[in-house]
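Below: protein 1.
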Amino acid sequence: MSTARPSPPDLPPEAAAAQLVMQVGAGHLLASALQVVVQLRIPDRLASGSRMTSELAAEAGVREDGLYRVMRALAMVGLFDEESPRRFKLTLAGQMLRSDVPGSMHPMALWITSPFHFRTYAELIHSVRTGQPAAEKVVGMPVFEYFTRDRDLSEVFNNAMTAFSEVVIAAVLKAYDFSGIGLLVDVAGGHGAVLGAILARYPAMRGILFDLEHVVGGAGPRLEARGVAGRCQTQHGDFFKSVPPGGDAYIMKHIIHDWDDERAVAILGNIHRAMGEKRGRVILLESVIPAGNEPHFGKVIDLEMMAMPGGRERTAEEFRSLFARAGFELTRVVPTESALSVVEAYRAG
C-alpha cells in the first residue's frame, strides 16, 4: 500500500477565488517575516548547511519558538526548506538572501520590507484619494528630503539601490552596446555601480557621476575597486536645476520613474540643454509596462512610485511622449534579462 499523501481534491471555483483573496491580503505578513530573517541574518547563519532553530535563535538572541514560526511560514513559499522538524536549510531563493553572494538580495529585502514601508502603505489610500505621496503624509515632507535627515534609512535605501544596480547592469551590458560614447554622464547615479561597470567594460570611455553631495560622497571606494576612478569625475548638484554639460550620452537608472510627467520633463529638458548642439543620446534603465493583464513586476513597483516619491512606471508610448516634450526622439526599447529595459532616445533635430 502506498504511503504517499493523497492529493487534495480540486477546489470549487469560489473556494479557489477566496483563497486567492486571502493570499493577496496576507502578503504583508510574509513581508514582515522576511524583514525578521534578513535583520537577524538567518540566511548568513545557514551558509554552511542546515541547522536547528534552537541554534539559530541562540546566536541571534531571539526566542526559538517565534523564529521557528517565522521560518516555517517562509519555507511554505520557498525561501527555506524544513528538512526535518525544526531543522532548516536554504533553498536557491534563500541563498540569494545571504549578504555575501553575488547578486545578493539582502539589501533590497531590508529596504522593501522596512518598517518605513509598512507605515507608508498603511496610508496608500491617501495617494489614491489625493494624488499625493502617502510617504509625505507619514513623514511630513518629500521622501528624498526625509532621507537627508534620517541617515540610517538613507543608508538602507542607497545600499538597496546599489545592489539592484549591480544586478541590472550585468543584464544591460549583455543586451546593449555602449560603443561610441566618449563621455557618459550618470545622472543621479548613486554610488556609481552602473557607471563603474560600464567604464570597466569600455576602457576608452570617460564618465561623470552626478548626484546629491551626501550620496556621491560614498562612491569613491566603489570606483576605485572597479579600477575606473582615474576616468570618472564625481560632481554634485540638483538635477532640477542643471546637469553636467558636454556629455555624449546621459544615463539614468530608475530615476525618471520617481517623478510625475512635469518633473520628468524638467530633468530631461536640463539634459537637452546640457548637450548643447550635440545629437546626444539619453539612456534610461526603466520598467516598460506591457498592456493588459500580463504579469510584470513594474506594475507592482508602480504602487511604490505612487506612494513614495509620487512618480510612476510607464508604457513605451508614455516614454515616447515624455521624450518628445523634452526635445528627444525615442529610438528603441531593448529588453534585458533583468526587470528593467534600456529605453534609448536621441536629441531631436
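Below: protein 2.
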Amino acid sequence: MNKNVSLSDKYEIAVLQNELTFDSNQHEAIHHLQRLLDELHAYGVKLARIKRWQWKSPTVSPWQGLYLFGGVGRGKSMLMTWFYDGCQLTQKRRVHFHVFMQEVHAFIHQNPRQNALPALAKKVRKKTQLLCFDEFYISDIADAMLLSGLFTALFAEGVIVVITSNYHPDTLYPNGLQRNSVLPFISLLHEKTALIELSGKQDYRLTKAKHQITRYFFPLTPQTEKAIVNSTPLLATCVTYTFAQLCIEPKGAKDYLDLVQNISHLVLTHIPQFTQDKNNETRRFITLIDVLYEYNVVLLCSAQVAIDELYFEDDIQLNFQRTRSRLIEMQSADYPYSH
C-alpha cells in the first residue's frame, strides 16, 4: 500500500473500482484506524525515546489501542492489513495469537520467576511499539490464566495493541474453565482499547469465492478418495494426513504451526460430521483451519458431509462459523492469495 494514501482514500478507491461494496461500518472503522495511524506517526520519534504513551481523546479516556470485533467475514483482516501496511513505525509486529502465546509460555518456562510477565513485556517493548493480533479468541485455560497479567504488563510498558476478533470482549471464553480469571482482562480491554464493532450479516469472504474449484470432496466413498488423488498437485510441497492423525490425537496450535512451515498443500482425509461429543476434535479442527488460512496453505479434503452440514451445535458455533467461511473461501480459484 502507498503509505501516502490515507486509509479512507484507499477504501473509496476500492469501492469506485468495484473491488469492495461500500459498508458504513467498515467506513467508520477506517476512521478509527486512520486516527490511530496519525497519532502513531505524530508521536513516532517521541515513542522511540519514552516508555509510556497514551492516546488522549476529548470524549474517551486514554486508549492504548483498538479492538475491532464483528461477525465472520466482515472485513476485519482486510482493514488490519491496510492499517499495518500503512504504519510507518519500524517497531511493529503482526502475529498470530497462537504463535504469540507459544512464545509467552516458552519465556515463562525459561524464566520461572514471579515477575516473568513484566520481564517479558519489557523484552517485547524493546523491539515492538505496535502489536497486532488477528482473529483473537481464547480457548486454552493456560492462556486464559495469563492474559490479565500479560496485557497489564504490556500496557504498562506503553505497547499499543490492535486486535481483531469475532467476539465482543464480554463474550470471550464464554464457557471456559475458570472464566473468572479472564474477567480482569476483559475489564482491561474496556479500559485501554476503543471497541469498534463491524456489524452486519454479509460475509464478504463468500463473495470472493464465487469462482470456485473443487478441493472439498464428500461424502466418504471410494470415488471421493480417487478424486482427491487426481486433484493432488504433483509438483507442490504436499503432505497427507487423516483427520484422526491431526485432530483426534492430542495436538495443538504449535503442532499445526510446525506443520505448515514447509508445505504449500495439505490433504486431509476422513473429516467427520461434528457433534457435541466431539468438542475437542472440533476445537482442534478450528485451530488447524485458522493456521492453514493464516499461512495460505491449500487444503484438499474428504469429508462425511457438505461444509454447511459439518456442525450444528451451539457451544462453539461462532468459531465454527469462521471455519465454515474459510473452508468455502479456500475453494476460491483465487486462493491461495499472492502476498
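The domain at 7-198 is CATH 3.40.50.300 (Rossmann fold).
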